[in-house]
Amino acid sequence: MASNVIQIQKSELESVFNELGLSAVNSGTCGKEWKKADPKAEKLTSYNPATGEALADVICSTEEDYEKVTQEAQEAFKEWRKLPAPKRGEIIRQLGEAYREHKEALGKLHSLEVGKITSEGLGEVQEVIDICDFATGLSRQLYGLTMHSERPEHRMYEQWHPLGVVGIITAFNFPSAVWAWNSAIAAVCGNTMVWKPSEKATLTAIAMQRIAHRVLEQHGMTGVMGLVISKDKSLGEKMAADKRMPLISATGSVPMGREVGQVVAKRFGKSLLELGGNNAIIVMDDADLDLAIRGIAFGAVGTAGQRCTTTRRVFVHKKVQKELVDKLVAAYKTIPIGNPMDNGTLMGPLIDEGSVQAYEKTVAEAQKQGGKLLTGGKRVDLGGGSFVEPTIIEVSKPLDIMQHETFAPILYICPIDSIEQGIDFQNDVPQGLSSAVFTEGMKNAEQFLSAWGSDCGIANVNIGTSGAEIGGAFGGEKETGGGRESGSDSWKAYMRRQTCTLNYGKSLPLAQGVEFL
Ligand code: NAD
Hints:
Elements: H1 10-20, E1 25-27, E2 43-47, E3 54-59, H2 63-80, H3 85-101, H4 103-114, H5 118-138, E4 146-147, E5 154-162, E6 165-169, H6 177-188, E7 192-196, H7 202-218, E8 225-227, H8 234-241, E9 247-251, H9 254-266, E10 270-274, E11 279-283, H10 289-301, E12 311-317, H11 318-332, H12 353-368, E13 372-375, E14 379-380, E15 387-388, E16 391-394, E17 410-416, H13 419-427, E18 431-432, E19 434-438, H14 442-449, E20 458-461, E21 473-474, E22 477-478, E23 485-486, E24 495-503
Parallel strand pairs: 1-3, 6-7, 6-9, 7-8, 9-10, 11-12, 11-19, 12-17, 16-17, 19-20
Antiparallel strand pairs: 2-3, 4-5, 5-24, 13-16, 14-15, 18-22, 21-23
Bound molecules: nicotinamide-adenine-dinucleotide.
């Protein structure tokens, strides 16, 4: 239907590109300097998932480029680690200010490249700004403990030192925030870094890096944040095996984390894994259903079901099942799908055709396993792009397919008799990222939050599974990888702990009363 074809205004694209320094061909390599884009070198094209149109080309980094950027990050580390942490924090504060200045253009770029609706694109940039602010404050709070020594005239304390060059591998669905969670915190901790972004979100990475490079340049500190881009996982694999990178922070699917985790462990490196989720909401019979419906709809349909924290399963008490299902299906039917940059659109496209096919396959398989399709289930023809309908599948008991994360807006709804059964069903999957309960009852809420309640890294009451704030530690258990990023004391993952004992006496007493010489 030609009338449906989404067209991104050429002038819109040009203004975003001009402001962020992007062009038709862009270099994907930056260490101390940006490598000049050689139009004859291997290219990767970035596509707009809402139209299928090419946005621009990116020149891939070669193995030699990777080597150079990594060496430069090693060199930069020698200086950066000497800068007092609050001074590093001040540079990150300025970085946050620079992102603030370009918030609108960056938000639009998220919409253009990964299909986020306008408010979510802007929200992601806000998350970047927030984490810069957080890291600035943190730069004065990298606290270590002191302990009382059992030996006289001895002092014992611990201190935290930077690790070195951190390798950062990111997924397509949060193309800037996940990098910022890592880079802002890693930087104030005194590390330098090399970033390998998703091959599906390269322009956003280049725009983020351009701004970071400019701010660092003003302080004579280029090389602290490096960028390499490959058209596949190859440079990520190189990073995982690279002994010069004491920490690999990798965000993406469970299969990716399984590979990266093993390679890094083999060389005794540290890994921080942020992998797939399979998040559930339990709705009890005493829940405020209007609140629950809003929480479920945002959790399941927001970002077109492409968040690691997307709500994929709902376990609803039998007594309110019909009411919840009827209202939710009615709400789903009103969700405007289309150009993510249009006012009023609530659901944009999936990232690519491969995702649409995975969606269709899962919808078919769920029905084969006994699921009843209540709404959605089909691709949406807007004359281009990768659009699908938000989908609800009702089941009488958990199906095998519900063990898996399909990165698309598919929601399973299953009845429960009690909070205990809801918690059992919720925990009975390999992943353990985010979880929630809707209830007005203190006992249900406390049971859900207890040690025998949710087994996830995130557990919410009367809030959906997605949309975490940066102040908390973000991450999950089991196959989600166990890593924690962003707020709280997640910074410790980017530092090494050193326990120091200092003798200011004239004798050498040994611990545990051991006698020698
Ligand atoms: P993906 O696993 O396909 O790719 C993620 C990144 O890993 C890309 O940069 C890719 O090139 C790289 N990669 C893949 N295999 C690799 C390997 N063997 N060695 C090194 N690098 C490798 O994921 P995606 O499709 O981009 O993102 C969606 C997935 O990410 C979902 O499973 C989602 O739940 C997860 N995710 C998790 C979090 C979290 O914080 N837990 C956040 C965002 C996304």
